[in-house]
């Protein structure tokens, strides 16, 4: 079984950068807009580092760093070299979602956007170690915060990572707060209790006891066929780009697969694969002949063009809302 990138000898963990703050409503849009407004100037990177950055974004200094981190790891903005300087620029993906004129969902009002952001966070082991490990490698349905910490500490020791227990504990705490609804009694208001938009996906829920949680595997009603098709394309290009077929087992259980990252059960997965030929306009074909369940591709993978699949879900919802 393919063990995934965390187990390669040259892997370096990424367990910080968020300043312990989970992704919050409005942060990605604010970061995108600020970078877009200053694009083309060599001092672009300083918009997150300047003395007045907190006033510009309306948050504290540590939150500015966290905002920049989330915009970067989700691929909304990126650092690049220009004329010997490191500058921050917007990406095609950032424009796809957050551009005021042509963006699909500038204010993250559609659950489709949340699924896309979740996929971005949980399939990038080089940027989000805890996210990738928790969704793709943690073996149990039920867990406590300390169990995740201990599991990552054990892996860090086995793989000789330079990672302290405190760093891992802080990253796990941020991970849990990203996906679990915080109690109103604890935080004082409903708005504070949903500090991270990804809690709306209900992928992880409190199990009724202090620091006890559950991964919620099963049908995902708000996950559209377009985002699923896009995720299959991204996974295929990363997992086995030369292969002409992928098995149900790989799509369900390989690290970084749609089955793992979206916490799908086999019934939901097979149901989605049965419809993927229509969604992909013939790019993919699902087969269950002779007891062999597999997906076949009919042409080369075009990862850069796969964003067109995401647009399908937004168009369908707009048509349905117009009826």
Dominant shape: globular
SSE pattern: HHHEEHHHEHHHHEEHEHHHHEEH
Distance between the termini: 47 Å
Main sheet characteristics: 3 strands, antiparallel
Which terms would index this structure?
323 residues, 3-stranded antiparallel beta sheet, globular, mainly alpha, 46% helix
How does this model look, in words?
Helix content is 46%, strand content 10%. The chain is mainly alpha-helical and 323 residues long. The strands form three sheets. The chain has a three-stranded antiparallel beta sheet. The protein has a three-stranded antiparallel beta sheet with strand order 6-8-7. A two-stranded antiparallel ribbon has the order 1-2. A hairpin with a 6-residue loop joins β7 and β8. α1 (27-37) packs across α3 and α11 packs antiparallel against α16 (307-322). The longest helix has 16 residues, at 307-322. The model is unreliable at 189-193 (pLDDT under 50).
Offer a quick outline of the entry.
The chain has helices at 27-37, 53-57, 61-73, 92-98, 111-122, 129-136, 145-158, 165-179, 184-187, 190-193, 225-239, 248-253, 258-261, 266-274, 276-279, 307-322; strands at 77-82, 85-90, 142-144, 204-206, 212-215, 245-247, 284-287, 294-297.
What topology emerges from the helices and strands here?
Layout lengths: L26 H11 L15 H5 L3 H13 L3 E6 L2 E6 L1 H7 L12 H12 L6 H8 L5 E3 H14 L6 H15 L4 H4 L2 H4 L10 E3 L5 E4 L9 H15 L5 E3 H6 L4 H4 L4 H9 L1 H4 L4 E4 L6 E4 L9 H16 L1
Helix pairs in contact: 1-3, 7-8, 11-16
